[in-house]
């Protein structure tokens, strides 16, 4: 290389010295047709993706603000009460982390599968499978000493989640069945399965409701503080983020699953067993959602009823993963932000009358804008030098 | 060496397209550094330079894909502002890229007409008339209604060229057009390019083959590391001069080779049949054997089963009948990952589709496929230190031009992509090397290096199955030559016992006409 330009500015247009000096009005340059144009860029630095994501989220806030104005509420009031409910005080901040816990895990579930180009939309079903697995271990192995029982219950959750995802991956690998369709259908199947369990074999004796018994207190996950529901599951979720990050970046399996996500054909020519990698990544993905189910059951609900999974954390996890651009660490940030939105919206509804369903709109707008930002990252805006005589 | 006239020195009025002080910077690379080139009307002007010298970037600037960071482009003396290829086409400049941009499921005529019609409806009759005229005029036999995906690579290139000419351009830029052609195809292309030049077309041609530069061009501009070394009249120089200008030192043009010492067979392919289901060709009872310590060259016009043979050997497709043994083990039904563990290295013809992860870093591509080797991982955990060390070493020995080992592969130049594959595949002492066009797109120094390495591997005891359309390469490297035609090996001989012409005749098969029918 004749010359190394270590830090060439690429995002912002390069200041064009000999012309800027010519005393042109920068604003008129900006609006002059053809003065700026987009150029395809083959390579983006991660920082720029981060900036673009942040800009997208800022635009989301503006759009939501406008919506709120239309409803007739001051956006400042709305955002203030949203913030208050999400992070305004110790209590609400901790509660936001409680909500974020399953989202982190289902976000990881989607992120790792999407990395491999496998479209696992079944996080919700695998989440419920995880809860079922937990209960099954609890129900069938009552004699286990506490620490072993905890391990066994989480293992059961992971295995059930993994197995449920594997149904789809086996169909994909053996018969080429589209995994989007199968995972969505498996969500419905397990819902029905759960209803049957709750109104039959696992129904509690003392109630007319479709629900299990309440679990014994020794199976409750320890909580961090006396005044908050924040439980050990949150720490587990953070550990899983580190595990997934390590898996994706530092292991041969991670290397191979990224490879099939990028170019399946070249991967198979280079001896990567594509089928095996798909089975592995789906099992891991399902296990992560399964762990979310265990965490919710053992940390919060302590029984399964037909409302279990009503928060649709499996589906929100997909959005979390996409907004986080499939980065494990990003999943934490986005999951916490979304959890804050969910909690804050309740407060906002009480305070300002704006329906809490606004959260869904926010999530949707954020998703679209972040995906647009991802595309925009592949271009660079540059000024065209004019040489008209 | 001949004196290098500075581009500005050409008589005014004669120059049609001029790049003036053009600089283009990519993150970490100055791809073009104050480049001055003057293209004269109705000349064939070659751009020559090592891999990564900035040829494609310069062409892309002339064609409006990129805008120069500094400097400007002049057309007939007037500053030209190109914001997109569309602007370039309107200004009369067309380009055929290294990787084609055709729509495979559409017909030739539809591909030609795409983007040319201002009207809402497609006027195919008029287009057909003009196209048929073109083809008849230049003696090119292509059916305007044929589906482009079914044409050979050479024919697709014609479609690209005619598509460009259909826009009525006056300047035609061709980026490595001969890399995909057979010797006959190259002759035909050159015949037509010369005629087009004589009719007033200005042609800018990028190639690595010095013989072609000498054959065809009027003038040559040599680039090195983004800078212009000089522009010379082709008549004033020889290949050696050009090589020296390009590389900055003397280049050995011949790879020496001792007699082969053939051992046990490492590849035995017996009577395999393979149906064409993927568009990658079929085999019809093909047999071939490669011994250790031997290079077997497979000569053939592309589309006669080379891809199918490649796929069958590396295990991506399995033959319906017949058998394949690698180092004595039956691999007829084995999966690619099993076959890879037998010490099989493979260089696919299409480096982007089958050889690389364009979104991975350079170093990740350098270990792709070997990630489970003890050298690069233990217990499933990647050994980053070893990977970095190996990458640094490969980048050094193969002179891969990249700002760093962590650079995203997509940004590398065509030849440097090929270097990544060669560095990867020739590491790790393979028993069998299946190489399809291993030097495609490589500059002369890299080509000679790769050929020398293949011979070294042979001398070490590896068997090499070399598939190439470059007959010079086949003759230079092979201990035995096999000709593939219509899914079968139709002749096996030794390089000393045959001639280029004889091989060429075998390649054309019994009659020339039944090639398109498969
Ligand atoms: N879009 C891009 N982003 C970053 N770097 C790029 C980009 N395009 C080209 N480069 C770099 O610029 C340099 C010149 O590339 P270019 O493609 O012009 O080389 P070339 O002379 O055509 O080489 P080859 O003979 O291998 O095709 C290379 O080092 C390449 O890595
Ligand atoms: Mg190039």
Q: How would a textbook summarize the main sheet of chain B?
A: 6 strands, mixed
* Structural class assignment of chain B: alpha/beta
> Whole-number radius of gyration of chain B?
23 Å
Strand content of chain A: under 5%
How many helices of chain A does DSSP assign? 15
Q: Which oligomeric form is depicted?
A: heterodimer
Please tell me the overall pLDDT of chain B.
Answer: 87
Provide the CATH topology of the largest domain in chain B: Rossmann fold
**What's the count of strands of chain A?**
2
Low-confidence parts of chain A lasting 5 or more residues at pLDDT below 50?
Answer: 1-33
Would you give an account of this structure?
The complex is a heterodimer of chains A (389) and B (518). Chain A has a domain at 102-330. The longest helix of chain A has 30 residues, at 146-175. Chain A has 389 residues and is mostly helical. Chain A is globular and about 70 Å long. In chain A, strands 1-2 form a two-stranded antiparallel ribbon. Helices cover 68% and strands 3% of the residues of chain A. Chain A has helices spanning 17-20, 26-31, 46-71, 75-87, 90-115, 123-140, 146-175, 179-199, 232-250, 252-262, 264-269, 274-301, 313-323, 328-352, 358-376, and strands at residues 36-40, 379-383. Chain B has 518 residues and is α/β, with parallel strands linked by helices. Chain B folds into three domains: 1-6 and 15-92 and 204-245, P-loop containing nucleotide triphosphate hydrolases (Rossmann fold), CATH 3.40.50.300; 254-343 and 430-518, Rossmann fold (3-Layer(aba) Sandwich), CATH 3.40.50.300; 354-427, no CATH class. Chain B is 32% helix and 25% strand. Chain B has 17 helices and 22 strands. Chain B has helices spanning 55-62, 85-90, 108-113, 124-137, 153-166, 183-198, 210-216, 239-247, 306-314, 336-340, 351-355, 362-367, 384-397, 414-425, 444-460, 471-477, 500-508, and strands at 15-26, 29-40, 44-49, 70-75, 78-80, 93-96, 171-175, 202-206, 219-224, 227-233, 265-274, 283-291, 295-299, 321-326, 329-330, 344-347, 377-378, 381-382, 432-436, 463-468, 480-485, 488-493. In chain B, the strands form five sheets. In chain B, strands 6-7-8-3-9-10 form a six-stranded mixed sheet, sandwiched between helices. Chain B has a six-stranded mixed sheet with strand order 16-19-20-13-21-22, sandwiched between helices. Chain B has a four-stranded antiparallel sheet with strand order 2-1-4-5, covered by helices on one side. In chain B, a hairpin with an 8-residue loop joins strand 11 (265-274) and strand 12 (283-291). Chain B is globular and about 65 Å long. Chain B starts with 14 loop residues before the first strand and ends in a 10-residue tail after the last helix. The relative contact order of chain B is 0.12. Magnesium ion is lined by residues 55-56, 98, 175, 413-414 of chain B.
């Amino acid at each position: 290389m004749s010359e190394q330009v270590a830090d060439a500015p690429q995002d912002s247009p390069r200041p064009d010295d000999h012309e800027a000096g010519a005393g042109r009005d920068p604003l008129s340059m900006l609006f002059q047709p053809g003065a700026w144009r987009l150029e395809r860029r083959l390579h983006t630095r991660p920082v720029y993706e981060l900036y673009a994501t942040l800009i997208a989220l800022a635009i989301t806030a503006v759009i939501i603000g406008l919506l709120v104005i239309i409803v007739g509420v001051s956006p400042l009031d709305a955002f203030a009460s949203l913030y208050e409910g999400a992070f305004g005080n110790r209590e609400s901040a901790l509660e936001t982390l409680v909500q974020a816990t399953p989202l982190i895990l289902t976000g990881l579930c989607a992120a790792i599968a999407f990395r491999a180009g496998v479209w696992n939309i079944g996080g919700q079903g695998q989440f419920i499978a995880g809860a079922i697995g937990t209960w099954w271990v609890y129900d069938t192995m009552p004699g286990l000493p506490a620490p072993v029982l905890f391990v066994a219950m989480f293992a059961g959750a992971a295995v059930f989640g993994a197995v449920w995802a594997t149904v789809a991956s086996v169909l994909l690998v053996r018969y080429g069945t589209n995994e989007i369709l199968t995972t969505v259908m498996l969500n419905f199947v397990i819902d029905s399965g759960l209803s049957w369990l709750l109104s039959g074999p696992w129904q509690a004796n003392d109630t007319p409701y479709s629900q299990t018994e309440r679990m014994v207190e020794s199976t409750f996950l320890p909580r961090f503080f006396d005044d908050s529901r924040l439980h050990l599951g949150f720490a587990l979720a953070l550990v899983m983020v580190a595990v997934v990050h390590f898996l994706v970046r530092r292991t041969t399996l991670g290397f191979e699953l990224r490879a099939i996500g990028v170019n399946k054909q070249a991967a198979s020519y280079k001896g990567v067993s594509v089928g095996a990698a798909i089975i592995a990544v789906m099992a891991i993905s399902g296990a992560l959602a399964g762990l979310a189910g265990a965490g919710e059951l053992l940390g919060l609900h302590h029984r399964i009823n037909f409302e279990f999974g009503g928060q649709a954390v499996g589906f929100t996890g997909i959005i979390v993963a996409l907004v986080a651009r499939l980065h494990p660490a990003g999943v934490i940030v986005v999951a916490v932000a979304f959890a804050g939105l969910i909690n804050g919206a309740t407060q906002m509804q009480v305070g300002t009358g704006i329906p809490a369903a606004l959260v869904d709109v926010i999530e949707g707008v954020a998703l679209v804008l972040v995906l647009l930002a991802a595309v925009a990252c592949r271009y660079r805006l540059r000024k065209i030098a004019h040489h008209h005589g | 060496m001949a004196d290098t006239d500075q581009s500005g020195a050409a008589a005014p009025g004669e120059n049609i397209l001029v790049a003036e002080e053009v600089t283009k910077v990519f993150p970490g690379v100055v791809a073009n550094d104050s480049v001055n080139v003057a293209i004269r009307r109705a000349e064939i002007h070659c751009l020559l330079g090592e891999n990564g010298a900035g040829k494609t970037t310069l062409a892309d600037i002339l064609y409006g894909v990129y805008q120069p960071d500094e400097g400007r482009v002049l057309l007939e003396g007037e500053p030209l502002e190109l914001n997109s290829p569309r602007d370039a086409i309107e200004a009369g400049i067309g380009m055929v890229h290294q990787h084609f941009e055709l729509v495979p499921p559409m017909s030739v005529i539809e591909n030609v007409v795409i983007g040319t019609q201002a009207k809402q409806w497609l006027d195919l009759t008029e287009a057909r008339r003009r196209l048929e005229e073109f083809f008849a005029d230049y003696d090119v036999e292509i059916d305007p209604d044929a589906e482009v995906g079914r044409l050979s690579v050479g024919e697709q290139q014609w479609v690209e060229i005619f598509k460009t000419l259909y826009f009525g351009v006056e300047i035609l830029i061709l980026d490595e057009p001969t890399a995909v052609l057979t010797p006959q195809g190259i002759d035909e292309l050159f015949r037509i390019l010369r005629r087009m030049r004589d009719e007033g077309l200005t042609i800018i041609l990028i190639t690595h083959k010095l013989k072609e530069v000498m054959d065809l061009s009027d003038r040559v501009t040599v680039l090195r590391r983004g800078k212009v070394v000089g522009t010379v009249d082709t008549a004033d120089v020889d290949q050696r001069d050009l090589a020296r200008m390009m590389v900055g030192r003397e280049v050995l043009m011949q790879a020496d080779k001792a007699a082969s010492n053939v051992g046990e067979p490492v590849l035995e392919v017996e009577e395999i049949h393979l149906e064409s289901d993927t568009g990658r060709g079929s085999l019809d009872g093909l047999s071939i054997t490669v011994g250790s310590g031997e290079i077997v060259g497979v000569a053939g016009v592309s589309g006669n089963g080379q891809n199918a043979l490649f796929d069958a050997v590396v295990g991506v497709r399995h033959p319906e009948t017949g058998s394949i043994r690698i180092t004595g083990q039956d691999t007829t039904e084995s999966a690619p990952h099993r076959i890879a563990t037998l010490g099989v290295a493979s260089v696919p013809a299409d480096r982007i589709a089958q050889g690389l992860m364009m979104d991975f870093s350079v170093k990740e591509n350098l270990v792709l496929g070997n990630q489970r080797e003890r050298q690069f991982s233990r217990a499933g955990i990647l050994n980053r230190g070893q990977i970095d060390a190996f990458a640094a070493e490969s980048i050094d020995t193969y002179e891969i031009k990249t700002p760093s080992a962590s650079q995203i592969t997509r940004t590398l130049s065509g030849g440097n992509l090929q270097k990544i594959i060669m560095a990867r595949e020739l590491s790790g002492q393979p028993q069998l090397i299946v190489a399809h066009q291993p030097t495609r797109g490589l500059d002369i120094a890299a080509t000679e290096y790769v050929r020398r390495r293949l011979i070294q591997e042979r001398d070490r005891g590896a068997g090499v199955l070399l598939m190439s359309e470059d007959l010079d390469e086949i003759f230079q490297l092979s201990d035995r030559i096999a000709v593939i035609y219509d899914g079968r090996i139709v002749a096996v001989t030794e390089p000393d016992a045959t001639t280029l012409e004889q091989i060429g005749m075998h390649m054309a098969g019994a009659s020339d006409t039944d090639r398109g029918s498969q």
